[in-house]
Please model this.
Amino acid sequence: MSDSGLLVRVRGKVQGVGFRPFIWQLARRLQLQGEVHNDNDGVEIRLLQPLNVDNFLREMQQQCPPLAQIDSISLSPFSWLSRPAEFHILHSQYGTMNTQVIPDAATCPDCLREMNDATDRRYHYAFLNCTHCGPRFTLIHQMPYDRAATSMAPFPLCAACAEEYRDPADRRFHAQPVACPDCGPQLYAATADDRLLATADAALLLAVTTLRSGGIVAIKGVGGFHLACDATSAAAVARLRARKRRPGKPLAVMLPDCHWLAACTDVSALDPLRALLQSAAAPIVLVPQAQSSPLCAAIAPGLHEVGLMLPSSPLQHLLMQQINLPLVMTSGNAAGHAPALTNAQALSQLHDIADLWLLHDREIVQRADDSVVRFSVSGTEMLRRARGFVPDAIELPPGLVAASPLLAVGGDLKNTFCLIEGRQALLSQHLGTLENSDIFRQWRQTVDHFSRLFHCVPQHLACDAHPAYLSHQWAQQQPLAITQVLHHHAHMAACLAEHHWPLDGGAVIGLALDGIGYGADGELWGGECLQLDYRQCERLGGLPAVALPGGERAAQQPWRNQLAQWLRFVPDWQQRPEATTLLNQPWQTLAKAISGGINAPLASSCGRLFDAVAAASGCAPETLSWEGEAACHLQALAQQAQGQPHPIRFELLFSAQGMTLDLAGFWRQWLDWPATRAARAWAFHDALAQGLAAMAHHAARQRGLNTVVLGGGVIHNALLLDCLRRHLAPLQILVPRAIPAGDGGLAFGQAVVACARLQASISSHSNKDSHA
Model:
């Protein structure tokens, strides 16, 4: 005769976070009998009846482990064939794709207390961790997630650590990276020729001495290397910039602790900022710079924002406690190379950059750059999704389901890729520009790693429609069916899916704003008004297409875009005082190339319009040293005059080809307006937002729609986004938040478009078969 029981199914982030031992302890405390185990769907708890279910569920939700996240709980009857006498933890049960690898997590308060307790056996140990914190994704080779399948395999547990690992009442129960000074990884300092200089605390002291003297230290972290120097020293930062050949791109700064925030940023809401910086993800957070900041001006020259972060690993905590100064923490790679992952790569690649190497002997299995988010009182915005967020699974919107595994390969810039199976998507960490051969090699290795790790072998591919993309060409070489997705359709679909827009939720209006993407009929788009759903995308209007003199060089030299705009829209441009710099360039040759259509393709690019206005405003360098540099300087200039009234307009024009904005009228008004550079920069942002919003309003009225989706890299311009929000009201506005608006979210959009089209195809075939 069987005994009645209750099956509790818990879904969410509930594996690898200490959830099973938590349930074990809870059941013991409530004197319950039963068992708990992991499987592909989350955690399954089987309990013997009778029990106070409400009390059990309440305590489970209120007291769950710090890294756990319960998305849903379902209850169903269960019959015990053999009555349990107590509560047990069972081995995990996995079938197909298991998405329960969790991201690396910042050091928890309990581990920090142990690290700073002179009586604790892990005192000053740079690699302590527990179930609530430490590396996960960056050290796992394969599933199931056991120590033997991680880079901790070469470090056998000592007796004391093994006892903690086996004890369900201990917070290190089944914490695969558990270690101590007697059995775990070791820290050491070395020279460029790998000569050992010091170990443990002595190595840290040598790094502190080097940094205080203005030197540069290469530091091996959990998902890659950092290059560090004193962020308050103009000389040290200048030395790092010169050696790394990074003249102007902003540098991230690690603060010793939260007490430095008030001095480094003007953010008034410090509590939510502090919570974000101290979260398990511990990202770099973009915030407004304080005018009297102790950080030197060379950290983010000419910009209004600075990227701040706090220590996220024991090694970083130990270093920051000893130096007690803000440090630059930038990616550990030489110009033109992928970030170093091994000690040998760091010693070789950073030979001419670093003065000292702070290394350890644990392998980095997976690269994970620091994630980057922007903080504002209205919420956070993801700019680069990597450490701390990847590989968290993303639930697909209602109605979308992948019948078989699908891989979306993303674009060639800011690349990520995306695997989907069933109702879940796995968006990879930020990998970078695939044109770099080192990064393309890392990309291929990471695609293979994800496929093995999550037991998900793709049966279908999705890629950008641009035939020149390396990602597109790679997809074409694979023996799988391919769905090609327009660049801007993918941007819009990613935002829709992030907001769980249902598959049958109908069409929306989209504003896709970026540099360049492949559009319909091979056109180059970048400033479009679209009508779309997950399956289809129709262009309704956008910015007029303007020549890109020199092709790809137009994205590197803003003055080329100024010339193209003025040749078309400003007949008297040579008499304008703003033309002085332009006239010193070889403009006649380019003018002939444009008129002859020689290496001057047409593109409706919002990004290149920003470059042109930045060049005309005198805030853009002749040649950019990093993507978006001109637009960021223009935004910083505009914020000096934000909110001031202005007469500038982008009027909405109509033709047989659809709606467009009057750029000739804009340039005439803008150039004739006797205002400061800052006022003009602000007027451009506000007027462009007003013009684009007018286009969206008109399209929404004509099509009977009331939702507008925003996407593309230009949406990362916080000032433009604020203006768009204001001018688009009262329409419902969907803005990317958790997924990057730029190309970092492209793969996710490709994946959901391909999934929706495949579902429609399967449904169509089923209907045909039923009528046959």
In short: DSSP finds 22 helices and 31 strands in the chain. Residues 677-703 form the longest helix (27 residues). The chain has four domains: 3-89, 187-376, 403-485+742-772, 525-532+540-734.
